[in-house]
Fold:
Amino acid sequence: MWFLTTCVIDVSGSGLLGFGAKSTVYLVQVSASSCTVTGELVGHKDLVSSFCFCHHSGQSHVCVSSSCDGTVRFWDSETKGLLREVTAHQNAVSAVHWSPVDKNLVVSGDEKGVVVCHWFNTGDISSFFPEPRTIFCLSCSPHTWNHVAVGYKDGMIVLIDVSKKGEVLHRLRGHDDEVHCLSWCPEPGEGVLFRPTQDSEADILGEGCLLASGSRDQTLRIWSTDRGKSVVTLKLPYLKKRGSAMDPGVKERLWLNVLWPKGRKTEVVSSCFSGELLLWDLLKTGKQKWSLFGSSSDGQNHNRIVFNTSSFQTQETQLLLSTSMDREIKCWDLNSLELCWTLPTLGGFVYALCFSPLGSGTLALGVGDNMIRVWNTQSSKPYDTRCFWQGIKSKVTALAWHPQKEGALAFGTDDGKVGIYGVFSNKSPEISSSYHKKTVYTVAWGPPVPPLSFSSSKGKLSYSLYSCAGEGTILQHDPHQLSAEAFNIDKLIKNTNNIQHKLSPHTDLGWKPDGKVVAIGNEDGCIDVYAAPDLRLLCSVQQHHKIINCLRWHHGLHSPELSGLLASGSSNAVVFVHDLRPVLESPGDSAVVISEPFRRLSGHTAKITGLSWSHHHDDRLVTVSYDGTAQVWDVLQETPVCNYRGHHGNLLCVDWSPLDPDAVWTGGKDFTVHEWRVSKQEFDKPPKGKKMVELKEKKKKTKAKKSSAGGAVVNGEKSAAALALSEEEDETSSNNSSLPPVAPSENQRKPAPAVKLKDKTEVTVSSMKKKKPRSMLPLSTSMDHRPKDELLHDCVTLASVTHSAPPVGCIPGQGDHVHFGLFSDREALNRMFESEEEAHLEAGHFETAVYLRLWSGDLQGALQLATERGELNDHLLSLAPMAGFCVWSQTVESYVKQLCLQEQFVKAASHLLSINKLHEAINLLRSHKLYREAIALVKARLPWDDPVLKELYQSWASVLEKDGHFSAAAKCYLACGSSFDAAKVISRKNEASSLRAAAELAQICGEAALSQSLSLRCAKELAQAEDWRSLQDVLRNHNALLVHKLHFSLAEFCLSVCLEPGVFPVRPVACGTLWTADRPFSSEWNGALLSLSLLLTRAFLCFLSEEEEQTMKELWFTVSWAKDSGHFSLFTQLCHLLFPDGDICVFSSQKSSEDPSAAVLSLQSFLRYLRLYELWWSRSVSNGSDKPDDKQQEKETGADLGLELLLCESTAAVQSAQRAVSEIQDKLSALVTKHRTQGQDAEEEAQNGVAASTHERETAGNGEEPETFLSLSMKLSKFQKELSELPESVKCFPRPDVLECCLVLLLLGQSSEVVSEALKQKSTDLLQRFGTSSCYSKAAQKFISA
Structure:
């Protein structure tokens, strides 16, 4: 915020201060005695570069801001709402100013040099490019509405006239470096600085205005805008601070701000090198023309450079407000030059806060802007703070007050530095010579441990300083000798406890208030408690599972029995409280492991970052978390008390007020510190599952009743003055340069909704200073301003012209006698008009030249001139009918072309309507894709059935469809009667809701076939999502889709069976080795269930139609598909569901004497196949330990299993032939691949063969010749012939693999009597005959040889 130093700060007449901070504008109500934050203006996406109020009555609540995001926004400071956003700039806007003269004129400038004028009442804009330079600042004249001063980066100041398209009036040269600020004298004229003694001197003084400028070249200049030069130059003095050495780089970090206060025409306020403010008396003689603000006492001035100043008048006095790099806003009395109050602000995250145990209400804040604030919260002055930044070059992440030495404050920083500040002295901090490698998490005071405890025994040391950092080490520093090397306490812990392994990295530590024990949190979630001074391990708390963030011992002030309570917070969002008093009072010989908490406090939804026990209660604990809330707990009752949600970001620190039992202080990543009361909170628990984004959204909705972040009131509570004014990364870099680079914003808030402002006031002549209009006849006017003698000679010459012959060479209305045209005949007047017109054209005043032609009666010529120059306007067009219809029509067409070049197509089309060119207007709108306006025009002026309307709808629909706006395109198709296309375009999105809407639309429009198709597509999408209720609703109104309704009902039923296998009795099946176990349901399973349900639907329909043969075929297709698809669990469930008794008689009416069909036999074989595997798996589970009763049962049921159905010889022949054909085809493919890859060695060629060729290796071993393409082709023909001779019924309805069943039967027969000897023999015979293929030969050989 502080680095963009154009008018980022401004005060309204009512005392409302607005200033830019990052991407937000904050509003503060100020007076001579106090200040109150009233709200914020949120919406910019980048840094706010400038801000200004409208200082005119009636709209003083309106303000304007500019930003590096290239926008200019108008706001209502009362409603905090956005009125208008203007994006006329293409680059970052660096300055904006509201004209003090014209209440509707706002001028802005960007970094590329473009100046834009905004007219607030009409919304019109006009842009100029006076200079190709970077604009740093600009200011509108308070005396002449059209004069604007612009300051540039290279030191140039340009005075422009915005009424003449940015015409440059003066270029003010004198500064050698950046122009930082411009301020006009509040009174007109240039005589305010001089006291002329003679009339001649009065003539020298111009009638212009005075302008003050401040530059980085260390000078303040006063300029005469009439003469265009500097009249006063003031050199900044260097004010050496008392007791401090001169900083050689302070002059390089200068920012020179100037302000000419209202009512003080001879006094100018400016900033100086080191934060001082000076009041310059321009009439004062002598060397020192300035007075210093706050000179009566030390500490009143800013301690860093001042960036912005603004003044306003109260009833009692005139106040000055200033902002500085030290992030403080100060209010000054301009009459006494004394400080009224200071509003401190924060420029980074609040990492640490803690109250002094000795100072009453003294609060220390560690902030990410590399500074420490010490706040006397009990002071009568508001926000009585002191800032400490010397020696700190990184974020302050840890703080700790000394328990006994008042004013001693230890701190740790992000770069690993540890030091001690004496807050009551002006000395620089003492810095430890031992640096941590990473961020310091915690600093704490505690009793010394060896080796420093040896010095303590001699009375030299009572407290040591301990620091814990990100690398996992804890260092002990000697506060009396920080230059000495710090001691790593891990060495002492290992020696005392005889630990050989590496200790877990430490993340936090906390000394018990009595100093007898210390708790150390570790990265692995473990908390170790050690006894001082030798750090013997007493116990280990193993409760957390993530990194420990904070530890706090109970104070035990009122209840000593609670002094052993230790509260801990980690990254797992749960706070644990452990009672360690038994361990501390009776420590054992070995360490105790504690795994059960005394109390468990659950409710936060993100990691815990801070804890604090109340000093006023025994059982109250407050915690803060990354969920953006602070929670107060009743620890003993294990219940929440209240929850504070006033912050806008993650919370980092908390402390209970030592003076007020109802007050808690919190700080976090929203750059704020809040003081809030426990008794006034609305909530008692943190938001469940709420993320910070949702929390911010909720807070914005209630912002009208609640104050925004920082500085005043939050939820009715007093807040710290910590306003979020810049990101900490920006401020980190600011310590090393005067103008640090701007970084992108970390957290952007949602812009406020735009509210259109209706301006009910009109611009009156009295509200602005009258300007002198441009002369229509400048040449003749200039001739009347010559010397007296020449004017007298003109009178004599004119007398000769009017009463006798004109003198030789005198032509009235031309040349040197052009002004005679007013006093001679009409011919002379016309000649004067011609001369004046030429002069206007040369000067670029085309409008005036046109009006001269109008005055001469040449209306057609005036229109022609305006047409040629592109200067036609509505006024000239209104005069065109006076010249006749043809001239008017041509003028309108010319004006239309001009408007099209200006991209004002709607206005151009409207003018075409005036000459009855309706179709041309429609084509103009359509050619520029203004279909909405073109359709409105056609519907208003042409019949409803005109083909042009349909063409427009179709064209618009095509464009919308191409851009992905399917709903809008569907409306266009419906309007032109193409309901089919409307439904199709909606369905293009191909998701359930769009398909359902498209189906309903098609049904309403009578497209039944399309509606059914789309409904079916929608049903499939809903089936994939398992939304069965919606699926049935979609199909309810389509009688033609009843079969699909049945299909999806079966799919839902199958899914429920698979999800709940206990619905139907399923025989126990052990985990198989050949088939995978049940798989998790996924899109693959859903697809399989849909396919299976479709096959079941076909079988069910055949069953209802009493087509028994076809029913068997469909059932066979269903079972065969389930088995071949690889989903064996699905195959098992299906078989038990359809055939619970293992027989197909429920679907078949064939008598046992009749020959079953091939489909029936194949279906029965699949059921026997399943039963075979179930028997095998059951034997595998039992491991051969059958009881006699089980064997008897197997003997009784073995004859009825029907396993011989699996050993079909014809089926085995077909399958053997098919395997042979497949192997030969693989060999042929390998030969083809071999010939294509010539040059590869034999090993690579062998690897290319799919069948491999166990057969080739065997033939090679037998001395046979390798198989050729011809021999393989002959074998292929042979097997194909054999295959063709086998029964078609066997080939049409394949059964399970016969050889596979043979192998399983033989394996089962080795351990069970279920398999008869006949089955074993038949299995062996089939393996001998057909088990020659490569995939079965090895396994079959084991049983054949046996």
User: Anything to note?
Assistant: The mean pLDDT is 80. The two ends are 93 Å apart (CA to CA). Residues 656 and 1177 are 69 Å apart (CA to CA).
